[in-house]
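Lecture 7 notes. Example A: sequence first, then its C-alpha cells.
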Amino acid sequence: MGSRATGSAVRTSAAAAFALATLAACTTRVPLADDYRGPDTWPVDGPTVYDELQPEPFEIAGDIEARTRAHFVVRQLSLPSAADPSESIEFEYYDVDGDASTPVVVLLPVFNASPKIPRFFARYFANQGWAAVVVTRGRDPLDALAAPESAMQGNLQDYHRVLDWVELQPELDATRIGVLGVSLGAMDAVMLTALDRRVNSLVVAMAGGDLSYLLANTSYRRVARTIDDMAADLGTSRAAVVAKLDAAIKLDPLAVAPYIDAERVFMVLARTDSIIPFEAQEQLRETMGSPEAMYLFTGHRTSVVYFPKVRTAAFEFFTRRFALNRIALAMN
C-alpha cells in the first residue's frame, strides 16, 4: 500500500509539473510596433505633480540591516514622506556586494501591499549583481477613493523621493534606473515614468488604463463592494459614483501613456484577466505606442505560474536598455 501510494504521489507530482511547464510555455512575444515614431511632446498644460516639492536635502529616518544573503544585504530604510512629513516612506534596499556602481531596479507595491511579489523579483536582480529597492505601502488604496487625485499625487511624490535617494547613493548608477510594477504597482509605475525622466526603463505587468473604467469593471471583490457601498451611502447609483470618480481623476495611466518612450517599455499582458480587464491592458499598450510585450494565456492571479519567465524577460529587457544607455552616454 505504501509503495503504491508513493508511486501515485510521484506520478501526480510529475503530471502537475508537466502541466505547469506546458502552461508556462504558452506565451507570445510581440516586438515594438514597426511604425512607432516616438513619444508625444509633454503638453504645456499637462499634469504637474512635483512642482510643490522642496529640493532641500533630507535625512534617512531609519536604516536597519534586516536580512543577509550570500551576495547582498537587505536593509530596511525609511524617509520622510514628501506628501506628508508626519508620515514615512518605507522601503527595502537590496545592497549588493562590491564597490562598482550598479544599476538599480525600483519595485512598486501591489494593491494589497504584500511584499511577496516585489521581493521575488528583487532577490533575482540582486543575485545578478544589481541593486533593488522594494517600496512598501502603508495606506489602503480604497481609503483614497474619496479624494483619488490627491492620493495618487501623494504616492507619486513619495516614489519621486525614493528616486531622489537613489540618485544620492554613490554605489548606484542613477543613469540606469529601472522601474517594475505589477497590477496597481504597474499603473503607478507608468505614471511615475511619464513624470520623472530619471527612469531609464520600465517593465509593467497587467497594467490597465482609464482608472474609472477599471473601478467600474473589475471583478476584484473588495473594489466592487467599495463602489457599491459608496453608492448606498450617497443614495445614488453605481454608475453615478463611477462618473464622479471619472471627473475627479485627471492623472491616469492612459492620459500620460502617449508621452512615454515606448522603446523603453516592456509590457506583460494577461489575456483572460478580469481583475484588470484585458481590454484595458491592450488599450494602454496601444495608447503608449505598442511597446514590446509578452502575452500570457492566463488570468490575473493565475499569472503567478509565469513569474519565473516574466522575471527572466524583465532582466533581459533591463540589461538591453541599460547597455544602450551606456553606449549613448559614451557617444555624447
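Example B, a different protein, same format:
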Amino acid sequence: MNKIITRRRFVGLSVATGATILAGGKILGSLSAPGTATNPVFKIGGDLEVNRLGFGAMRLTGEGVWGWPPERANAVKVLKRAAELGVNLIDTADAYGPETDELLIAEALHPYPKGLVIATKGGSTRPGPSQWVPNGHPDYLKGCVDKSLKRLQLDRIDLYQLHRVDPKVPMEESLGALKEMQSAGKIRHVGLSEVSTSEIERARKVLPIVSIQNRYNINDRKWEKELDYCEKENLGFLPWFPVGGGRGVKSTTLDAVAKAHNASVYQVALAWLLQRSPIMVPIPGTSNVQHLEDNVAAAKLKLTPEEWEALAA
C-alpha cells in the first residue's frame, strides 16, 4: 500500500500550495491505459488549460436547486475558497436557481482571476423545485446565452454547454443557434451534457464540440463508451455526480483503500477518476468549505495500480 496520508495532511497540502496544487505537468496523449493518467491539467478545446479538479456550483443554491441558498454569505465564501485553492474551472447553469447560481459566481469572484474558466449551460427550464424540462428552441437558447453573459458579467463565455437535448427539437437546430452565438463572439467553445456517442457525432457535424458532461463515478459507469470516445477524440469529459451525489459511493474495496490511505471514500473516488483518463475533469460540488478543501486535496492522492484495478473491477 502507499504511504499513509492523513486527512489533516491532505488539507494541509492544498492550503499550503494554494493555486499551484494542481498546476504544472504535461498533457498525455489519448488512448492511455485506464488508471495511468497522471497529468494535473487538461486543455479544453486545445486552449483552455484547466486544473483537472473543477468545482460544480449547483449545490450552492436552495433546496431542490431552487432559489437562493439559506446562507448566501457561505456560498460566496465557498466560491472564494475554491479560487484560493487553485480551482480554475467552475461549472454552473442558468437552470441552477434558476439564475441565482450565476449571480452568486459573479458576486463572489468578479472581476475574475486570470485563467478562471466559467462553464455554464442552457436549454433546461425550471417550472419549480426539483423540476427540469428541456427547451432547445433556437430563439430560446440564443436568449439564454445573452442572459448568462449579463448575469456572469462576461463579454464571452469560455465554455457553453447544451444542458439537455430537447426531444421536441432537432439537435441540429439547437446547436445551429449556439453556432450563431459562437460566430458572434459570445461563446468560445461548445460542449454537450448527457449525450450518447451517436449524438456527439451528430453534433460535431454542426460545429466543433470540445467537452461532454455526463453522469459518471466509480459506482455508475453507464457512459463508459462515451468516455472512451472522448479520450480517443481528446474531448474533455466532465463527470457530474463524481462522488455519487446524494447517494454517495460505496463498496467494501473502496472502504479498504480509503482506510489504507487514511482518506475518505470521496477522496479515493475522486483520485480514481483522475487516474482513469487524462481527459477526465471531475466537478465535485459542495456548500461546505471543509468538504471543498478535502475534495481539492484528493488530487494529491495516488493509488497504486493494484488499488486502481481493484476499484475498477
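Note on Example B: The mean pLDDT is 91. The longest helix spans residues 138-152.
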